[in-house]
User: What shape does this take?
Amino acid sequence: MRAALYVRVSTEDQAREGFSLDAQTKRLEAYCRVRGWTVSDIYRDEGYSGRNIDRPEYKRIMDDIEKWDVLIVLKMDRIHRNSVNFASMMDNLRRKGKEFNSMQEKFDTTTAMGRFVMDIIQRIAQLESEQIGERVKIGMVRKARYGTGSMGSGHPYGYVYKRGMLTVIEYEAEVIREIYSMHNGGMSLRSIADRLNNSFIPSKRGGRWTGQSVSNILRNPTYAGYIRWDGIVRIGEHAAIIDRSIFESVNGPIL
Assistant: This one.
């Protein structure tokens, strides 16, 4: 069986405790000799946290997945410290027909017991992921119902997110007021977008305006001082850019 060895350290303390890259490598190589496995390659990440997957050698081992049969680590926390990321990796290995072995914990998917333990770990990780999602949604619903904070990490054109609140960017606010004025004057979405582009007014991301981006502004209750999330519309704590009556002249009653 072809074995890919993965070793990682993130701090000098780990090296002093015997977790240096060389120390891990030697133990894994000896383990492979005992098992009669051939070492296909050694992947060494130094100075990287195990809480995310943004590690060069971790990425390389996954790119090389067809070159080995079993991925071996000294301890499970060498490959992942995040149970959700670990479960995702195991799903990928299963799809590719690959095995995983954590030498110190004796976690070995080449055995029936190892596969059983893996299934339990993945179920725990899935539960953790779903619970996090539930907590996030509860918080977002609360914000929508009580009009606090911002609905998401981004912010719409005309605002910037400061100190937990949406703050008006005045020169962009003037563009928004002009968009509503042009629409109420009978201009089409495409014509409004062309007018803005011809005036060299950049959109939110610095690009060109489209009919869709104009429509998004015309239908966003944020500009009238409200927030909307998951079907809930409530008055917000941020400053409005247009009057509610102007917004409702385009969209109908806001509530």
